[in-house]
Amino acid sequence: MSGTDPNAAGRGEVREYAGGWMTERKGTGAPGFLKLAFPIIGLFCAGYLVVYMYGEVDHADRGALVRTFNEMTVTSPGLMYGIAAMALLYVVLVTVFVIGRSHEDE
């Protein structure tokens, strides 16, 4: 059996990336929901870093342990805000790349 699709005639050129793990038909773009998934997931992750940078200090069972650990290890909010800012910058760059022009051969 050959690797060609007999029904592919007239559908456009199929290009492979990453050793055949990803394929793309020339002239088609990624679906909108996939483009939207990148910023949503990235913003959730960056928000999670900010919200839980001190741990679950108000949790009923382990809150006291988390507060004791925070007292002993001295947290660095500046470092965590810096990491969250880098994560947000990454989200912006990936979003611009994903929503931007397709990588057509010129």
What would your notes on this structure say?
- The protein is built from 3 helices and 2 strands; from the N terminus they run ββααα.
- The protein is mainly alpha-helical.
- It has a domain of 70 residues.
- A two-stranded antiparallel sheet has the order 1-2.
- Strand 1 and strand 2 form a beta hairpin.
- The longest helix is centred in the last third of the chain and has 23 residues.
- It is elongated, with a radius of gyration of 22 Å.
- It starts with 13 loop residues before the first strand and ends in a 7-residue tail after the last helix.
- The model has no long low-confidence stretch (mean pLDDT 81).
Question: How does the SSE layout of this entry go?
Answer:
Blueprint: E1 14-17, E2 22-25, H1 32-51, H2 63-73, H3 77-99
Antiparallel strand pairs: 1-2
Helix pairs in contact: 1-3
